[in-house]
Every structure is written in structure tokens, then in C-alpha cells.
């Protein structure tokens, strides 16, 4: 498979995930033209590739800042993003330099994956696969949010969240997800659930 074919497949996947996770998405064209979360992810793919070449780090930062101005979403070029990331609404989302985001993650508006220290090295969170981070939530420091976890709206996470758990409150407290808990993809409004 050529690079171009792989890139086009990835772009189509990004469009499809937005259509799948946002009931308001009416068409693939609408998503391609009007979804800032998709645009921010696309620009990040370019800037992240540039970031890996030390001579291109400044241009990568400048392009990422232009994308921030256009989308309201700031993703540092050094951050590592998995596949099928969906940023819903997006305004105010911040993803720090050493953040690692797994596959099939959903970030709602106002989410911060930020640091708590000014030291060099890993200082931002690692988000597992299939995690949902609610509107306004802050995940701070070198913490791990395990696979299939949910972070509630406006929660402030400063400690690890085990896989399959729900973290709510300030500071966030971890709760086991009830067995009867609905799947977030089938909730009317997942931001309310979490």
C-alpha cells in the first residue's frame, strides 16, 4: 500500500468516526468542512511528523498555533495521538507535549490533558483506549487513565484511573462502573452520563 493510499484511508477513517460518534453529523462533506476536531487531528498528524525532525520543530509549533487559532483546539506537536480520536465540539481542548492518547478516545470541549510540573520529561497524562473524557475535565500530570475508563464532566484527575472505572469530582474520585451502566455510545447525551 502506498503512502498516499494509507493517508487517504486514515482521513476517511477520521471522517467516519465523527459520523459514527456524533448524531448531529449529517454528511461526510459536512464533517470534512465544518468539524474543528477533525481539522485539529489532521493538522496534528502533519506537525507531529515534523516534530520528530529537530530542524522542523519551530515550523511544527507555528503550524500548530495557526491550527489552534483556526479551531480553538491546541494539540502540541509532540503529543502522541492514537487512531479514531474524536474531539466533540472541541473549543478549549488542550493536549500537552508529552500526552499519549490511545485509540478510539473521545474528548469533549474544554478538556485539558495538562502538566503539573515545569520539569522536563513525561509530565502529561497517558490516556488508554476507548476512554471518554467529559466536557471541562482536567487530567493533570503523568497519570494513567486506563482502557475503557470514563472521566466525568468537570472532573480534575490527578491520580491514576483504573481500566473500566469512572472518575468524578474535584479532585476526582474513582468509582467502579455499575454493571447496568449504559454504553456511552448508546446514551442520549454521554456528557450527562459521565
UniProtKB/TrEMBL annotation:
Keywords: Acyltransferase, Amino-acid biosynthesis, Cysteine biosynthesis, Repeat, Transferase. Its EC number is 2.3.1.30. It comes from the Bacteria. Pathway: Amino-acid biosynthesis; L-cysteine biosynthesis; L-cysteine from L-serine: step 1/2. InterPro entries: Hexapep, Hexapep_transf_CS, LbH_SAT, Ser_AcTrfase_N_sf, Ser_O-AcTrfase, Serine_acetyltransferase, Trimer_LpxA-like_sf. The keyword GTP-binding does not apply. GO terms for biological process: cysteine biosynthetic process from serine. Belongs to the transferase hexapeptide repeat family. This is Serine acetyltransferase.
Amino acid at each position: 500500500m502506498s503512502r498516499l493510499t494509507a493517508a487517504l484511508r486514515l482521513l476517511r477513517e477520521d471522517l467516519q468516526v465523527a459520523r459514527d460518534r456524533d448524531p448531529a453529523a449529517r454528511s461526510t462533506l459536512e464533517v470534512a468542512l465544518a468539524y474543528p476536531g477533525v481539522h485539529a487531528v489532521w493538522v496534528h498528524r502533519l506537525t507531529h511528523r515534523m516534530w520528530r525532525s529537530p530542524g522542523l520543530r519551530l515550523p511544527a509549533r507555528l503550524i500548530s498555533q495557526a491550527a489552534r487559532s483556526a479551531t480553538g483546539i491546541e494539540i502540541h506537536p509532540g503529543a502522541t495521538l492514537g487512531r479514531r480520536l474524536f474531539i466533540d465540539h472541541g473549543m478549549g481542548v488542550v493536549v500537552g507535549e508529552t500526552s499519549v492518547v490511545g485509540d478510539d478516545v473521545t474528548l469533549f470541549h474544554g478538556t485539558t490533558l495538562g502538566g503539573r510540573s515545569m520539569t522536563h520529561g513525561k509530565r502529561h497524562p497517558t490516556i488508554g483506549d476507548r476512554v471518554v473524557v467529559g466536557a471541562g475535565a482536567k487530567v493533570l500530570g503523568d497519570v494513567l487513565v486506563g482502557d475503557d475508563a470514563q472521566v466525568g464532566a468537570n472532573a480534575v484527575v490527578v491520580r491514576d484511573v483504573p481500566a473500566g472505572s469512572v472518575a468524578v469530582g474535584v479532585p476526582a474520585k474513582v468509582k467502579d462502573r455499575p454493571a447496568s451502566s449504559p454504553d456511552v455510545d448508546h446514551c442520549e447525551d454521554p456528557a450527562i452520563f459521565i
